[in-house]
Design brief:
Number of strands: 21
Radius of gyration: 21 Å
Distance between the termini: 51 Å
Low-confidence stretches: none
Number of domains: 2
Order of helices and strands: EEEEEEEEEEEEEEEEEEEEE
Number of helices: 0
């Protein structure tokens, strides 16, 4: 077992490279990074520091049958984190300035991050808030985020994308059979593409919408015209291209 503390870093960066197991990033002390990790002796678990970067790795010796690692890292809120794993669950319970995750399988959960970039094959992605930008590329995993701001991009084969609130910047989604649902969409530009998935978008009141939508065998459902005489407070452009999926625009709020 390793229990090592690296003091003195105001804005540290953490890199984790594991084959399988669990990776947790939890609240720590300011200007300090603490790593508590345990793995089978054949996994070659190592913890090192390269400049302002703390590296936790089990891949130096190659692939082992007993290569599962359990890693907990205590970090300050200004931390950037990069995690690469074949089959590992990632759980982040502290705010981060940036989170980058690449996995084949394993679920990813987070609290609040500035920017988020995820590539996964079959893992689910669930989080509370992204404040700057988000990009998620997946195959069969679902995506659920409470709030995202800035530039947002989601691509999935069969996974669903569910966002409670998306505001500012742009929103782009691309799915094969997965559904897209945004309860409250306040992005200025929206572009959605899908083969057989449905698209549901909630539009805030007093929003002027420029809509360009088409579907081969699905339906497009729009809200009834507003009877309000108040001028629009915002505007957005929406472009939707579907093959057999349905699209629904509704008034939110």
């Amino acid at each position: 077992m390793i229990d090592q503390t690296f003091p003195g870093e105001i804005s540290p960066r953490v890199e984790v490279r594991v084959q399988s197991g669990n990776v947790r990033l939890v609240p720590g002390e300011a200007k300090s990074v603490r790593v508590v990790a345990e793995a089978h002796k054949d996994a070659g678990l190592e913890v090192s520091k390269r400049g302002a970067t703390i590296v936790v790795s089990t891949d130096k010796g190659g692939w082992f049958r007993n290569d599962k690692a359990d890693i907990t890292i205590y970090v300050p809120e200004s931390t950037e984190a990069s995690i690469n794993a074949a089959s590992a669950d990632v759980r982040v319970t502290t705010p981060l300035s940036r989170l980058e995750v690449n996995t084949a399988s394993g679920d990813i959960t987070f609290a609040t991050v500035g920017s988020l970039e995820v590539r996964t094959a079959s893992g689910d992605v669930r989080g509370d808030r992204v404040t700057e930008s988000v990009r998620v590329v997946g195959a069969s995993g679902d995506v659920q985020i409470n709030s995202c701001s800035g530039k947002a991009s989601f691509s999935s084969a069969s996974g669903d994308v569910e966002i409670d609130r998306c505001r500012g910047g742009s929103l782009k989604t691309s799915t094969a059979s997965g559904d897209v649902s945004v309860a409250l969409c306040q992005s200025s530009e929206v572009e959605c593409k899908s083969m057989s998935g449905d698209v549901d978008l909630g539009i805030p009141p007093r929003t002027r919408v420029s809509l360009d939508a088409s579907t081969l065998s699905g339906n497009v459902r729009l809200p009834e015209p507003s009877e309000s005489s108040e001028p629009p407070e915002s505007s957005m452009s929406i472009k939707v291209r579907l093959v057999s999926g349905d699209m629904r625009l509704f008034r939110a709020g």
